[in-house]
């Protein structure tokens, strides 16, 4: 008998991608291929979403699962919540696992709020008695009691999300898995949700939390693991994991330089992304220069989206060319200059992600460039550090005192 | 505290009934959801449950009884075909509703874990409700036409259970296979339709051509219909081997359905 909440041993998940059938989407093609090569075995490419992961989580711990896109975080959570089965290895869970994977998944638009609470609660593993007992609490937490007998299709998206989160947050399971759900609702509701999640861990239950928002991981978790391309690179304190996350950036940046390693359809790949200045002071404009080749085969204009992230991976700004009505013609090459004005970045290291998109993503170059913001504050006075310790960016503000 | 061990799936086997029992609330919620949704935002609502078999039975009496002049074992043709339709629907509606159930709930299947078996199984609830309403009507008509089925009526719940088991077995297997091959969704309704005409549902077994009669006698669904008509209309009892054969057939189909379903269950989220 183990005393841990979760023990994972040699866990792997391999997806099989059918190599030959790429492009076969008609049954006539499939039949014709079969006639031409009657004895051909289907050939598969194997993709290891997770390979040989071992870790243990004691009771009462809030474990953050950190990693870049495609590192296997969501796969790990899907395995732990039994949505999908492992290829090899073994997971030993000390109790029921409740999951809060995507808010509102179990909701049906035609059913009323009340009916959905019962349906969703049952799906998340609650018995009828448990739901009845917590019903008032759930309704109270969500703040939608006036609309309980209205079909949720008439709810505003905020109400919908609040109700869904409330049901899941009142699960009494020993282990609770959460995937990026705290980024819902208004600020007040987010704070309430975060507090609720902390209570869960305080009760001696175990919380698993996957997020790109390093801020919330730091706020919520007591320990963390760091995943990189399906392997476990670090297990320990949250700060230690964040450290590894930061230091992995350079290596990541080098692999992303190679277009074949990048996500997106590849119909158009960025040639180069350069920065106006590699170091700047907080009030300087950030200038990003993009070189795009011609893609004569591409039909229709495309747009660009550029993210500026801090070293914890929090997206500080999204500069999307659609917002300015700028669409680019793929028949000829372009040199584009992006100028970000009036964004007062705090001193530190920042990275730039560039996305080339149409209906889908053509090229996703994450970590295309990085720059440092020098520790020179744009304020008239020098004070102790705690005057700027909070907040993600610096602000241009005034106190007008009568 | 019971520990849960998760390992890679292997081989064949039956599902964990303890787990299914503890999640029975899901079955109930899914079932009631389907029932509520079917009649919400409809004008006559539940009346559709009555209208459908009535119109169906009326048309069959007209076509098979009136135009084709087929025999109905001495009971009024309308009553005869209504009994046939109600029984047949126990089997066929479960297939129709359970087979596409996993695919139409794919958002859930790929995002939340619960025993997947409950998705196709929950369709039984709405079929039961339809049958109950139809049966109420049928009982009224028995009095109106003055037909007394006698004591065999007590066996009706047994036949109903067996018909549901057979239908659910096929439906579960189909729903699991449909996750990967949507073709099943196109072929299955057609197969059920063919079975409907190949089985004496809207006509009596005596109406089958004499030289082909043995073929009809080999169809387990014929045994089912004969058993139902014996219990519902008081017609001649089918031979004992047919009743036993039907029970065996239902159990086998259900076992087959469970095995196929269990075989594919854990890959659903990856391929749906």
Question: Can you offer a commentary on this structure?
Answer:
- The complex is a heterodimer of chains A (402) and B (272).
- With 402 residues, chain A is of the alpha/beta class.
- Chain A has helices spanning 27-36, 73-80, 113-123, 128-142, 157-169, 187-202, 214-220, 238-247, 249-256; strands at 6-18, 44-57, 62-67, 88-93, 97-100, 175-179, 206-210, 223-228, 231-236, 272-275, 279-280, 286-292, 303-310, 315-320, 334-340, 348-357, 361-373.
- Chain A has 2 domains: 6-247, 3-Layer(aba) Sandwich (Rossmann fold), CATH 3.40.50; 261-373, Coagulation Factor XIII, Chain A, domain 1 (Distorted Sandwich).
- Chain A has 9 helices and 17 strands.
- The radius of gyration of chain A is 24 Å and the shape is globular.
- The mean pLDDT of chain A is 83.
- Chain B is mostly helical and 272 residues long.
- Chain B has one domain (17-34, 44-265).
- Chain B contains 13 helices and 1 strand.
- Chain B has helices at 17-22, 24-39, 47-67, 77-98, 101-104, 106-109, 118-145, 156-180, 183-198, 213-217, 220-233, 240-265, 268-271; one strand spanning 4-6.
- In chain B, helix 3 packs across helix 4, helix 4 (77-98) runs antiparallel to helix 7 (118-145) and helix 8 (156-180) runs antiparallel to helix 11 (220-233).
- The longest helix of chain B has 28 residues, at 118-145.
- Chain A: One of its GO terms (cellular component) is membrane.
- Chain A: InterPro entries: AAA+_ATPase (IPR003593), ABC_transporter-like_ATP-bd (IPR003439), ABC_transpr_TagH-like (IPR015860), Bact_Polysacc_Export_ATP-bd (IPR050683), P-loop_NTPase (IPR027417).
- Chain A: One of its GO terms (molecular function) is ATP hydrolysis activity.
